[in-house]
Write a structure and sequence with these properties.
- With 111 residues, this protein is an alpha+beta fold.
- It has one domain: 60s Ribosomal Protein L30, Chain: A (2-Layer Sandwich), CATH 3.30.1330.
- 14% of the residues lie in helices and 28% in strands.
- The protein contains 2 helices and 5 strands, in the order αβαββββ.
- Strands 2-1-3 form a 3-stranded mixed beta sheet, with helices on one face.
- The radius of gyration is 15 Å and the shape is elongated.
- It starts with a helix and ends with a strand.
Length: 111
């Protein structure tokens, strides 16, 4: 994970509060549960976030203690799409609270 993040050459947020939007696109089961809309099974959502937050220390932010808001979602990858994750990081400002994000984390819309 750290190597994948390093390869993206992001600008690290050195200080101040950070907001994070993380969307995980998981593989759809081939048999049992293939008709499920959401992957409401293990591993737990918080475990994914902790792994990524720790891996991003010193790359996306100085320390994950800077994170003051996070939105983390597990979705199934679309047919033909490889499992992957999308992380959006920004310096936190209160005026984006109360908004929902589209599937890929762009396009703010009022919740």
């Amino acid at each position: 994970m750290r190597l994948a993040l390093i390869g993206q050459t992001p600008k690290k947020i050195e200080s101040g509060p950070v907001g994070v939007l993380l969307t995980l696109f998981l593989p759809r089961p081939k048999q049992k549960g293939k008709d499920r809309l959401f992957p409401h099974v293990r591993p737990d959502l918080d475990n994914y976030f902790k792994l990524i937050a720790d891996a991003a220390n010193g790359i996306l932010w100085k320390d994950d203690g800077q994170i003051v808001e996070m939105l983390v979602r597990k979705l199934y990858a679309a047919d033909g799409e490889q499992p992957h994750s999308v992380i959006r990081v920004s310096e936190y400002c209160e005026n984006i609270c109360g908004f929902a994000w589209d599937r890929y984390g762009g396009g703010l819309t009022r919740a």
